[in-house]
Amino acid sequence: MGEAIVITSGKGGVGKTTTSANIGTALALQGKKVCLVDTDIGLRNLDVVMGLENRIIYDLVDVTDGRCRLNQALVKDKRFDELYMLPAAQTKDKNAVTPEQMKDIILELKKDFEYVIIDCPAGIEQGFKNAIAGADQAIVVTTPENAAVRDADRIVGLLESSHIQSPKLIVNRIRANMVRSGDMLDIDDILQVLNIDLIGIVPDDELVIRAANLGEPTVMNPDSKAAMAYRNIARRILGDTVPLMLLDQKKSVLTRMKKFFGMS
Amino acid sequence: MTVKSNYVTIKGIKDGLVFLLDDQCDITELLSELRYKLEHSHQNILTGPIIHVDVKLGSRLVTEDEKQLIVDVLKQKGNLLIRSVESLSSEEDSSKDQISTIIGMVRSGQVLHHEGNLLFLGDVNPGGTIICTGDIYVLGSLRGMAHAGVDGNEGAIIAASYFSPTQLRIADIISRPPDEWETRESGMEYAYLLDGVMQIDKITNIVRLGRDFKVFKGV
């Protein structure tokens, strides 16, 4: 029996879909059998980020409405044999599916996959309720902005009052130079408010945007800082203890490396 | 039997009847007079359609059993529907001296309602709200909204270990940090009302409030 993890945030545009795609791919890189589930019915884009849009035949609503079997709707990734995706419908809306139906689908997927990563839509309405219905664990994504932290706090409150205990936190799009100059909230400020376990920090990286447009998860890129962060998160999900890369230290390591290569 | 005294007063209000019960006399006398009034003297108004009844016990200290006895007497009349039994003393006693402790975290969008005084162990985050009829003491960070004395008690106070609220309300007075309070280091502070204006002070100065706190003076 696998484990279902929902990636959620409350606020839109903080990187839920990117995080889902990258964590899913990173877990597949580690040799795990992974299924990504897009629950953003009506506004699906996990398939675009994964570059699998043109392979979709059936979707989530087709499964719940009985037009196809669950494994007919699964789209196999083009890079990994053990990575699949269940796309959301683009023509319906969130109310086309009930939390009970979602729970059944996730339960079914957990039988075949080691990890089921659920990409949650923004907001706290039906779509959110659907997304968390089948999940065993939750990862809350936030960015270092007050508005995102406020929404993350709301989501954490809702998760804590649901069946999901102790959600984990990812702080996305950190800019080390802005934190240093005091223009951006730092990790400690965010943790003080949210008071949940941190599972990873992801630096702001232009390569992420490029990769998303190409339909290639960033994790595949060995040069990207964000990719390393996502691979670390995947390892933490698997139970490894990986120290958090502190942004300042990381910077110094990088400059040291640059200096090293410059010399050689 | 004649009515010796007026322990029981029955008043009509818009949507029912209010039974004002004397709070000084003996409970047995009160019950017998209540029974007499229901069965004999006020029979005409107490029969007929269903009437809502509020019972006010004044400041009488009643046990649950005694309360039940009064309710039972009233229940003998089928048309009396008891809506509430109020006793000033029991309410005030519980809210005045006692302080209840609640542990947790009030996150954005969550509201904690409390009757009486509250000691809250944990944080109140921005967007979170504590609403209380008495005082609010937060052992943690107060970053959200706190409303003390919500029923109009202007003597209520709000205190916190880390005092950085988005907004404070005491009774009907609303205040927010930047423009109304002088800037200061956020530390252990409390808010109170002085002549209808919100004031903030260090927790050590709480003694100057002149309330009926139990003050430790040493030897």
UniProtKB/TrEMBL annotation, chain A:
Superkingdom in the source lineage: Bacteria
Record domain CobQ/CobB/MinD/ParA nucleotide binding: where: 5-217
Record-linked CDD domains: MinD
Transmembrane segments: none
InterPro entries in UniProt: CobQ/CobB/MinD/ParA_Nub-bd_dom, MinD, MinD_FleN, P-loop_NTPase, ParA/MinD_ATPase
Keywords for the protein's UniProt record, in alphabetical order: ATP-binding, Cell cycle, Cell division, Nucleotide-binding, Septation
Pfam families reported in the protein's UniProt record: CbiA (PF01656)
Family note: Belongs to the ParA family. MinD subfamily.
Function description: ATPase required for the correct placement of the division site. Cell division inhibitors MinC and MinD act in concert to form an inhibitor capable of blocking formation of the polar Z ring septums. Rapidly oscillates between the poles of the cell to destabilize FtsZ filaments that have formed before they mature into polar Z rings.
Protein name stated in the entry: Septum site-determining protein MinD
Originating species: Paenibacillus sediminis
Automatic annotation (TrEMBL), chain B:
Pfam families in the cross-refs: MinC_C, MinC_N_1
Subunit organization: Interacts with MinD and FtsZ.
Biological source species: Paenibacillus sediminis
Domain Septum site-determining protein MinC N-terminal: 8-85
Keywords recorded for this protein, A-Z: Cell cycle, Cell division, Septation
Function in brief: Cell division inhibitor that blocks the formation of polar Z ring septums. Rapidly oscillates between the poles of the cell to destabilize FtsZ filaments that have formed before they mature into polar Z rings. Prevents FtsZ polymerization.
InterPro entries the record matches: CAP/MinC_C, MinC, MinC_C_sf, MinC_N_1, Septum_form_inhib_MinC_C
Name listed for the protein in its UniProt record: Probable septum site-determining protein MinC
Domain Septum formation inhibitor MinC C-terminal intervals: 104-193
Family: Belongs to the MinC family.
Domain of life: Bacteria
Gene name as annotated: minC
